[in-house]
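R.M. (postdoc): so does anyone remember the format we settled on? I'll just put the C-alpha cells first.
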C-alpha cells in the first residue's frame, strides 16, 4: 500500500516544518563552520542542508497528496498520467486559499461576458500560474476545473480523471447495496451500465497504430443522466478538429455507442491508424431529451450556450479548422448555438428533425462567411420525415446534401466502410472529396411511403398534447417502417393505428372518425410540398 494512504497529512506537515526549522538553525552552523574551518571542511554539513530542504519539500508534497486523496481517487496518478507536476507540496496552504479565491473571482467577473471573453480570461489566469499551482487547482477543485472552458486541456484531463475515480467508487458502493436488497431492480441494471462505462474511462484507449494512451475528458459530470466530453487524438497538435453533438436518449450508461462512432471517424481507412493532425471530440454536454420531450425545444435552448462556451474554450494548434457534426436532436441544439455566433468552419446536420421553426434555409443560421454547410438524410430516417422542429435541412436548396451510401434509418451515419463515413472524414480533414447525393430530393423518390409517413406523423401529433408526442412517435415506429416498405394498405393501417393507440394509452385522444380521416390523408394526400 502506498505510504500516502496510511500516513496522516498533519503528521507529514509537522515533520516538514520541523525539518525546515532545523535547517534554518543548521544554516547558521554552516556559516560559522565555513569561517572557522573553511568551506571545504564544512561540505558534509552542506549535504545535510540539501537533504533537509529536499525532504521537507517532499513531505509537504505528500501531505498535499494525502489531503486530496482523502476525498477519493488517486490525485498523484491523475497528475502523472497527463504529465503535470506532482510537486504540489511547494504550494503552501495559504497559497492554495489564494488560488481558490482568485479563480472564483475571475469566474465571477466574467460570468456575463461572451463565451470567447470568458475563455480568454480563464486562459490568462492559468497562464500566470506555476506548473505546481495549476496541478494543485486540478486536484483541489476538480469539479470546477474539470469543466472550466479556457483552462489548459491537460489540467482538465487530470481533474476529470479524479472525478471519474471518485464517482466510480461511489456508484460501485451503491450498486453493491442495491444488488444485496433488490438485484432485479431496473436501477441496478442502470447502475451496472454506468459503473461499466466509468471503469472503461479509466482504461487506456488503443490507437489505430496499437499505442495505449490515457482517455482524455474535458467534461465529466455523473449527475442525472451524466454529461461527458472526450477527446480522441492529440488536441494540442490537431489542425483539424470535429465536435460531435448527439441527440436524444444519449446518456452516460450508453456512452460507448458515441465513443465507438468517434473511434471510427478518427480511423484512417487506408493506414488503419488515427488520421494525422486530427482530433475528434464527443460533446455530450447537455441534458439530452427522451422520446417524451424530444418534440420540445427547451433542452436545445438550454444546451446551446454550453456548446458555444465549450467551443470557445478549446485549446488547439494555431489556425486549426473546426467541424461540427450534429445528429438528430443535436442538430436543433447546434442550430441555436450557431445562431448565437458559435464559430465552426464546416457543419454537417444528420437525421435532423428540423433546425427550428424560423430556419428555412442556411442563410437563416447567420453563419460567418465561408462556412460550409452539409446535410445527410439516410433512406428511412423517419425522424427527418417528421419535421418536428421545422423544415428538414435535407430539402433546403442552399445546403449541400451528401450521399449516405448503405446507411438506412436514423442511426447508421457513422457506418464503417461506407460513403457516409467517408464524407464525414473528408470534411474533417478538409480534403474536399465528398460525394454529393445524386437522387431526387422528393421523399417518395428516396423511399416508397416516406411522404405518407410525414403526413401520418404530423396528423397524429396534431391531436395529442405536446408532451405526449414523443410517446406517440415511439409507439408508431413499427407502423412507420411498414408504411415505408410499401406493405400497408388502408384497412391494415387503420387496424394497426387503432390497436397501437389503444395499447399505448393514447386512444382517448382519437375517435374512430379521426383515425379513418388520418389514415386516408396519409395514403392519398401526401406530396412533396406537404409540410
Amino acid at each position: 500500500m502506498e505510504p500516502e494512504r496510511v500516513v496522516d497529512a498533519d503528521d507529514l506537515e509537522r515533520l516538514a516544518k520541523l525539518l525546515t526549522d532545523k535547517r534554518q538553525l543548521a544554516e547558521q552552523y554552516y556559516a560559522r563552520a565555513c569561517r572557522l574551518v573553511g568551506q571545504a571542511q564544512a561540505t558534509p554539513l552542506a549535504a545535510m542542508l540539501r537533504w533537509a530542504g529536499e525532504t521537507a519539500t517532499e513531505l509537504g508534497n505528500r501531505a498535499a497528496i494525502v489531503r486530496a486523496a482523502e476525498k477519493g481517487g488517486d490525485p498523484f496518478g491523475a497528475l502523472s498520467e497527463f504529465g503535470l507536476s506532482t510537486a504540489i507540496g511547494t504550494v503552501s496552504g495559504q497559497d492554495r486559499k489564494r488560488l481558490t479565491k482568485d479563480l472564483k473571482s475571475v469566474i465571477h467577473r466574467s460570468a456575463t461576458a461572451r463565451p470567447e471573453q470568458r475563455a480568454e480570461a480563464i486562459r490568462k489566469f492559468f497562464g500566470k500560474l506555476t506548473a505546481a499551482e495549476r496541478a494543485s487547482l486540478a486536484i483541489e477543485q476538480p469539479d470546477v476545473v474539470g469543466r472550466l472552458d479556457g483552462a489548459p486541456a491537460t489540467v482538465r484531463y487530470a481533474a476529470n480523471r479524479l472525478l471519474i475515480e471518485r464517482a466510480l467508487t461511489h456508484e460501485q458502493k451503491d450498486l453493491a447495496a442495491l444488488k444485496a436488497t433488490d438485484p432485479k431492480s431496473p436501477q441496478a441494471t442502470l447502475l451496472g451500465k454506468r459503473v461499466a462505462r466509468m471503469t472503461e474511462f479509466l482504461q487506456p484507449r488503443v490507437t489505430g497504430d496499437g499505442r495505449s494512451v490515457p482517455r482524455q475528458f474535458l467534461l465529466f459530470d455523473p449527475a442525472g443522466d451524466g454529461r461527458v466530453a472526450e477527446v480522441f487524438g492529440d488536441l494540442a497538435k490537431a489542425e483539424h478538429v470535429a465536435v460531435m453533438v448527439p441527440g436524444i436518449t444519449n446518456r452516460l450508461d450508453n456512452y460507448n455507442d458515441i465513443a465507438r462512432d468517434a473511434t471510427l471517424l478518427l480511423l484512417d481507412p487506408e493506414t488503419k491508424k488515427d488520421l494525422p493532425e486530427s482530433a475528434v471530440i464527443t460533446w455530450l454536454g447537455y441534458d439530452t431529451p427522451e422520446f417524451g420531450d424530444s418534440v420540445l425545444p427547451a433542452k436545445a435552448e438550454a444546451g446551446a450556450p454550453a456548446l458555444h462556451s465549450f467551443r470557445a474554450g478549446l485549446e488547439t494548434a494555431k489556425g486549426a479548422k473546426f467541424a461540427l457534426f450534429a445528429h438528430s436532436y443535436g442538430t436543433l441544439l447546434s442550430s441555436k448555438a450557431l445562431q448565437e455566433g458559435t464559430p465552426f468552419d464546416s457543419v454537417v446536420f444528420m437525421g435532423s428533425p428540423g433546425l427550428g421553426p424560423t430556419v428555412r434555409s442556411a442563410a437563416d443560421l447567420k453563419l460567418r462567411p465561408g462556412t460550409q454547410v452539409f446535410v445527410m438524410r439516410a433512406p428511412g430516417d423517419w425522424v427527418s420525415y417528421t419535421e418536428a422542429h421545422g423544415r428538414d435541412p435535407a430539402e433546403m436548396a442552399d445546403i449541400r446534401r451528401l450521399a449516405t451510401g448503405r446507411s438506412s434509418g436514423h442511426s447508421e451515419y457513422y457506418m464503417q466502410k461506407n460513403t457516409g463515413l467517408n464524407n464525414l472524414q473528408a470534411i474533417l480533414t478538409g480534403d474536399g472529396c465528398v460525394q454529393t447525393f445524386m437522387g431526387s430530393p422528393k421523399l417518395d423518390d428516396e423511399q416508397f411511403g416516406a411522404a405518407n409517413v410525414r403526413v401520418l406523423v404530423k396528423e397524429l401529433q396534431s391531436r395529442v398534447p405536446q408532451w405526449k408526442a414523443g410517446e406517440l412517435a415511439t409507439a408508431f415506429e413499427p407502423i412507420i417502417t411498414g408504411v415505408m416498405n410499401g406493405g400497408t394498405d388502408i384497412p391494415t393501417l387503420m387496424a394497426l393505428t387503432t390497436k397501437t393507440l389503444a395499447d399505448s394509452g393514447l386512444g382517448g385522444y382519437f375517435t374512430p372518425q379521426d383515425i379513418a380521416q388520418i389514415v386516408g390523408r396519409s395514403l392519398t394526400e401526401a406530396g412533396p410540398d406537404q409540410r
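R.M.: ...and that's the designed sequence above, right after the C-alpha cells. Also worth knowing: The beta strands are 205-206, 212-213, 216-221, 227-232, 240-245, 278-284, 321-327, 346-350, 372-376, 400-401. The first strand starts at residue 205 and ends at 206.
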